[in-house]
Amino acid sequence: MKIALAVAQRLAGFALVFLGVTFVIYWSVFSLPGDPIQALAGDRQLPDSVVAALTEAYMLDEPVGVQYLHFLSGLVHGDLGVDLSGRAIAPQLASRWPVTITLALTAWTIQVVLGLSIGIVSALRHGKTIDRVLLVTTIGASCIPVFVLAIMGQLLFGVRLGWFPVAGTSAGWPLSYILPSLVIAVFGLASVSRLVRSSIIENLGAEYVRTARAKGVGERRVIGLHVMRNSLIPTATYLATDLGFLLGGTVVIEGIFNLPGVGNLLFQAIRTHEAAMVAAISTALIVIFLVTTLLVDVLHTLLDPRIRRG
Amino acid sequence: MRKPRNRLGAGLGAVVVGVIALAGCSSADEEEATPTTEAAQEPVRFAVETPDHLIPGNHFASYNIVEALWAPLVQLDENGDVSFLAAESVESDDAVTWTVTLRDGWTFHNGDPVTAQDYVDTWNYAAYAPNAWVNAGQLANIVGYDETSPLEGEPTAETLSGLTVVDDLTFTVELENPDRQYPLQLTIGQTALYPLPSEAFDDLEAFEADPIGNGPFKASSSWTPDAPLETVAYEDYAGPEPTVDAITFVPYIDTTVAYTDALAGEVDIVGIAAAQAQQARTDFPDHLYELDAPGVDFLGFNIEDPRFSDIRVRQAISMAIDREAINDAVFGGSQIPATSLTSPSMPGDPAGICGEYCEFDPEAAKALLDEAGGFEGTMEILFVANWGQEDLFEAIANQIRQNLGIEDVVPTPAADWAAFTDQVMSGDVNGPFRARWGALYPSQQNTLQAVYTAEGEGNFGAGGYSEPEVDALIAEANAAETAEASYEGYTAVQERILEDFPTIPLFGNRYLYVTSERIAGLHTVSGAPDLTQIQLAS
User: Fold this and answer.
1) Which of B136, B253, B423 sits opposite A47 (nearest CB)?
2) Which of B478, B477, B438 is nearest to B458 (CA)?
3) What are the backbone dihedrals phi and psi of residue B58, each rounded to the nearest 5 degrees, phi first?
């Protein structure tokens, strides 16, 4: 019951956060200087009659409040509107979400598998050479800027070795997604493995572990059940929030790897001042983020009885 | 063997080269993997900017695709003279009323014959303001455009009164002013003049998904902006048969990615920025094409700004810029230092007409500036951020600073195109600004009329410059009977504009393309690769 109430409260809070954030986004794109219609044409000035027709069609001469309300009312009716080249936004997003979600999930899976393995190995061998090597490698890798890593990956595995396509999605999953996912995953790898490592080490020294050992519980069971379960709580929190970040953070990677995902569209939309498009994508990202944080909190109470009682 | 090079700093370069060296042992396999014979010809993969629309009259960024799917009425032969493609002739006695006669036997990709009515219907649709087709300006010189697309208020006519269908293969065009250059306006770059089949107007969105043109290639897959578009040679094409069987247009958000893809041989033809020329010479020693293009780069001014209203100040700035040095340092020598207002590839371009004012002479520049009373305050040079323009304007600012002894010369990036055009159009600039014109057809008329007359589409690049004498000279040149006479006419126009020196000519353009090893030759039409003339390596 308590959980249900908490969830309801959180959902109410969501509505406020949602309205606030979407308005701020709408307003900030709106207040960027310049006329987005003229900018489309670059060095060529559009005929005035064309500018007038387009300005009216996209309500660009209306105040930001009116535009925003129009966006919201469309949203309520499930209509995201059209972009500045007159194409409906919803189907564009629909065709791009699968790319972004596939990319984020692949990256996330790599991060979970590699992060947990590295973390566990370095915790169980902490202080040994292997621990130090893993520490230096993961931190070193996460220090390299994402785009550098991406371009190195493209040149080595794409151009030189030819194992993976340099860019694009034409080779499908998993081939087209491995390289970009690896690049994203490497960035978060250090955090995940460090987190796993330190919480395992902490728990290894905890009193309940000593008690378990004193009771004669086997080492495998001590580690596998007692230590792991408790060490996973902070890791699970991190990984769940991370999934939200990964979805939003694919902008750079999608650009470098020419993946037609949502992040890519967001980048273009900001460049061309497409307020409706930016708001639509951000809205979706906000919802995803809010939902994952909610899930994390629910997950917490399931994993750790102390939170439930407290 | 290809040698990948990265564009990053030297330190990073070492890392990358190290990594690549480790992988070096695999290069032998790569060579073996190259197929020696191909049963069916693989489509040529052509990298394009993500296209916005495939309607020829209503697109900004889809030139390559549209030019593959459609064919223009007029083309130029090897000598640069007018010859005809979809038209059999384009004739006029008075240069005002033009009769366009279509060649018989041309069909759309759906099999329907291309008729005069199709042209007239398409042009009418494009010119009608409420349809808001962005390339409508290409029809602005036809009688009746003021009624279908008035500057203010609602249109009073739905169709252009200057267009008349004579029969299935003939229509007439009445122009506002006599213009002997008209046939040149019907060439490949003016895409709003391509014909659409009548079914297009029932549902333009559906049409765009499965476009039907009259050109050398037809779409063999449905189109969405972010997926590759496959095309194959149209079997009933009435023009000269293209040299390749199929072209796939692969959209890229960022052409630097396409460049890397070309290194890997995954895409065959990639247009690159002039600033990448140096690197491309190393990466693609035998597969870099520098195609003469109809574009010009220049600097514009707000001529209302009292600090720049003295012509000697503008001339001094021009003479303080070492175009050769900048071309070598920034563009790898790929561009052409400007000596006139038009691109050197323009027929009749009066090379050298700018004279001493386009030549680098720091001492004369300094003397001229002193004579004009020097320069006080900060000079900002405005350009667009994140479009690869930083190095160019940094270099220009340095030269003005050093050669003219002006302390505060600041290259100033505007956040994006919207901010930039807004500042330039409203005159909110604090010094020279970036300007460029890419001519849509091979006549000096296009550049001069667009940039240096008040009605021109590129007039904001010249800071709103206009001069009745220039207008009169252009009208005279437009009416000239022969090509030679028109060249003389436009030379007079350039001479007159340069007396006012409203802009600083910088470079005539070459557009750069790199190709995979599958491609043995590219020819150009208007700076872009001629898609019907791609030579494959045998």
Assistant:
1) B136
2) B438
3) -140, 60
Extents of the domains making up chain A: 1-84+274-310, 95-271
Pick from B60, B417, B449 the residue to mutate for testing the A interface (most A CBs within 10 Å): B417
Which numeric CATH code is attached to A95-271? Answer: 1.10.3720.10
Nearest CB to A255; choose among B155, B227, B254: B254
Residues of A in contact with B49 (CB under 8 A): none
SS3 B275: helix
Q: Give the span between the Cα atoms of A115 and A192, in whole angstroms.
A: 5
Of the partner residues A45, A156, A166, the one whose CB lies closest to the CB of residue B261: A166
Distance from CA of B419 to the nearest CA of A (A): 4
pLDDT digits (tens, 9 = 90+) for B136-179: 999 999 999 999 998 888 899 999 999 999 999 999 999 999 99
Residues contacting A4, CB < 8 A, separation 6+: none
B136 and A96: CB-CB below 8 Å?
A: no
Tell me the pLDDT of chain B averaged across its residues: 90
Q: How far is A305 from chain B (nearest CA, A)?
A: 49
How many CB pairs below 8 Å do chains A and B form together?
179
Per residue in A64-112, pLDDT (tens digit) is 888 888 888 888 888 888 888 778 888 888 888 899 989 999 999 999 8
State the Cα–Cα distance between residues B102 and B168, nearest whole angstrom: 9
Report the share of chain A in percent with pLDDT over 70. Answer: 97
Q: Residue type for B381, please?
A: I
In this prediction, what percent of chain B has a pLDDT beyond 90? 79
Cα separation, B479 vs B176, in Å, equals 12
Nearest to A142 by CA among A103, A99, A194, A101: A194
pLDDT digits (tens, 9 = 90+) for B228-285: 999 999 999 999 999 999 999 999 987 788 999 999 889 999 999 999 999 999 999 9
B8 and A CB contact within 8 Å: yes
In this prediction, what percent of chain B has a pLDDT beyond 70?
93
Task: Give chain B's radius of gyration (CA, Å).
Answer: 24
DSSP-assigned beta bridge partners for residue B527? none
Contact assignment for B253 to A264 by CB distance below 8 Å: yes
DSSP helix, strand, coil percent of chain B (3-state; round to 5): 35, 20, 45
Contact between A45 and B155 using a beta-carbon 8 Å cutoff: no
Does residue B2 sit at the A interface (CB-CB below 8 Å)?
Answer: yes
H or E segment to which residue B270 belongs: strand B269-272
Cβ within 8 Å of A, B 197-226: 224-226
pLDDT tens for residues A172-215?
888 889 999 998 888 888 888 888 888 888 888 888 888 888 88
- What residue in A sits closest to B20 (Cα-Cα)? A156
Say whether B421 and A44 touch across the interface (CB within 8 A).
Answer: no
CA B46 remoteness from chain centre: 18
Question: Considering only alpha carbons, which residue of chain B is nearest residue A55?
Answer: B132
Helix (H, G, I), strand (E, B) or coil at B506: strand
Q: What's the rounded Cα separation, in Å, for the pair B163 and B193?
A: 13
Left if phi > 0, otherwise alpha if psi is -120 to 50, otherwise beta: which for A255?
alpha
- Cα-based distances in Å from A227 to A20, A196, B289, B470: 42, 11, 64, 86
Q: Which of residues 15-34 of B touch A (CB under 8 A)?
A: 15-16, 19-20, 23-24, 26-27, 30, 33
CA distance A94 to chain B (A): 12
Give B370-417 pLDDT, tens digit per residue: 999 999 899 999 999 888 889 999 999 999 999 999 999 999 999 888
Q: What is the DSSP letter of B238?
A: -
**Lowest mean pLDDT segment, chosen from A57-61, A136-140, A246-250:** A246-250
